[in-house]
Write a structure and sequence with these properties.
This protein has eight helices and 16 strands. It is an alpha+beta fold. The chain folds into two domains: 114 residues, D-amino Acid Aminotransferase, Chain A, domain 1, CATH 3.30.470.10; 159 residues, D-amino Acid Aminotransferase, Chain A, domain 2 (Alpha-Beta Barrel), CATH 3.20.10.10. The strands form two sheets. Strands 7, 8, 9, 10, 11, 12, 13, 14 and 15 form a nine-stranded mixed beta sheet that branches. A hairpin with a 5-residue loop joins strand 8 and strand 9. The two termini are 23 Å apart. 42% of the residues are buried. The model has no long low-confidence stretch (mean pLDDT 96).
Length: 292
């Protein structure tokens, strides 16, 4: 069965799901999006993802013509139409069709798209043995420009860093901000462990406040692991006891080498393993039911 894609109130087979070439999401990356996961017939942290979508839209002065409740139903119905219990959902709201100029006032109606499919971001081996990453030369864009806290369709900053990872033959790249502090990776937030304390960069260094990131911090506190948000440099990563990444698509995945330097003993650490195990348990029962 062909994947059914939601486009502006209707469902189409993916081969027929289309937008205008004059859509400003396509022409200029003018819009916002969310990546969402469903596990075992439940959508994980759906409310948080919907809230972040609407906050991002507000940040770029984009009025979404659906209520949050209606958008929630769009997500659920898209999954139902594709008969999925485990899925990756991509929810997109662009400025809509306009002209070839920049002026967003020429776009009369936003374009809303929802896709539900399956995703495998990394091979299972990396979750058990850990991954190697590099530091990208590309710097995280400053909040005064395209603020990283908005999950906008303008993802070129991340893509340029991802290209560097590809050229280096590794799955991910770590981005520093313009002050040389670690921000995040191309599609994931980053955590390090030092002396039993879980540390992650604060939002103001230039990160997307990840839904999975927040979940990891909550799980750590429940496990009695101290959590701190504070700035750190590459040196703190190189000398950390453990390192791992978190993200909706990636979930939680260990990092065992950065820029050729082994982290700790070069294997996933005990706190990392506790977090991953706790996350796996949480997603078994947490979430909004798709099929009632």
């Amino acid at each position: 069965m062909s994947i059914q894609v939601y486009v502006n109130g209707e469902f189409f087979p993916k081969e027929e799901a289309k937008i205008s070439v004059f859509d400003h999401g396509f022409l200029y990356g003018d819009g916002v999006f969310e990546g969402i996961r469903a596990y075992n017939g439940r959508v994980f942290k759906l409310k948080e993802h919907i809230d972040r979508l609407y906050n991002g839209a507000r940040g770029i002065m984009l009025d979404i013509p659906l209520t949050k409740e209606e958008m929630t139903e769009v997500v659920l119905e898209t999954i139902r139409r594709n008969q999925l219990k485990d899925a990756y959902i991509r929810l997109v709201v662009s400025r809509g069709t306009g002209d070839l100029g920049l002026d967003p006032r020429k776009c009369q109606k936003p374009t809303i798209i929802c896709i539900a499919d399956k995703i495998v971001l990394y091979p299972e081996k990396l979750y058990t043995e850990g991954m190697e990453i590099i530091t990208a030369a590309t710097r995280r864009n400053r909040p005064e420009g395209v603020n990283p806290q908005m999950k906008s369709l303008n993802y070129l900053n991340n893509i340029l860093a991802k290209i560097e990872a590809n050229l280096a033959g590794v799955p991910e790249a770590m981005l520093l901000n313009t002050e040389d502090y670690v921000a995040e990776c191309t599609g994931d937030n980053i955590f390090i462990v030092r002396d039993g304390v879980l540390i992650t960069p604060p939002p103001y260094v230039g990160i997307l406040i990840g839904i999975t990131r927040n979940t990891v911090m909550e799980l750590a506190e429940k496990l009695g692991i101290k959590v701190e948000e504070k700035v750190f440099t590459r040196y703190e990563v190189f000398t950390a006891d453990e390192c791992f990444l978190s993200g909706t698509a990636a979930e939680a995945i260990p990092v065992v080498k950065v820029d050729g330097r082994p982290i700790g003993d070069g294997k996933p650490g005990p706190i990392t393993k506790k977090i991953i195990d706790a996350f796996k348990e949480l997603i078994k029962t947490e979430g909004t039911e798709i099929y009632k």
